[in-house]
Request: fold
Amino acid sequence: MRRIGVAIQIAILSLISPVVCLSQSQPIKKEMGSALGFVLLEVEARPIRHAHVEFLNPSTGWASAVLTDGKGRFEVSKLAAATYQVAVTAPGCERLETTVTVDGTVGPLLWRLRKVAQPATPRSSSVVSIQELRMSEKAESAFAKGTRLLQQGNVEASLPYFQRAITKEPDYYQAYHNLGLAHYRLGETARAKEAFQKSIDLAKGGFAPSQFALAMILCEKQEFQRAEKVIENGLAMDPGSAVGKYFLGVVQFALNRNDEAEKSAHDALWRNAGQADAHILLAKIHERKHNPAAALVDVASYLRLDPHGPLENEAHELLQRAQREISPSVSASH
Reply:
């Protein structure tokens, strides 16, 4: 379980809730395009703040996600020429799915989301309602400052800014989420768990990153069955999440459901080819299945993507074990 824990700790810290946008990395290409637009409520034509807009390239599995600002505006940059599958979600609104062909600059696009009625049985519903947040400038400013400090590694200094944002706006679920990440990074797991749960409660399950982070804390405590349910709740809100699929694979691996874990890891890579940690998970799965040749390929893929990443040592250990299984005569020093 120690090795799984290392991967969990790294992955949780990748879930920082952004100030305006959160984009996954994409290989540099000669010609890049962009897409910009607005997300509004259908009837009121009111801008939706912090709507989640994801562009997915189905041919490569690469994805980029952004959050709308206070005017409902979003912009996605560094888009290779392609037809993208787009998903737009916001708490209390129906999910919108469409396609956008990018060849240069596209937009301004205009998408309107419909409000959903309060569900009669919230537990069985994957989309639940939440009162629209109208953040004060002071709360937004404090959240932005805290997030920048957290991203820079100045974790303790970020705490009072998240607390200030919450004091100004008690329903600020993203501030609770980043507060949880800060506590987690300081080793304060109980406080982190409490903050993630508060974020989930305020968003009524509508904010997937908090679901994923809470699930990984449960996984660290070896509460795998509970963790799996929480991840599935998060994926119901954000089915295109590569991180969510990777976390699901981690839990399935811990439960010795290797075929399911392998599928989840591949699903994560399909959604985001740069999800390097998924290759390490695949290497572990193939090692358990006594398929060292496949494990070698997995490790090589990880090292190509992140040669000096946080799982580098584990990658080399997996590589050595696979080499020894293929050829017992290979020296351990190799």
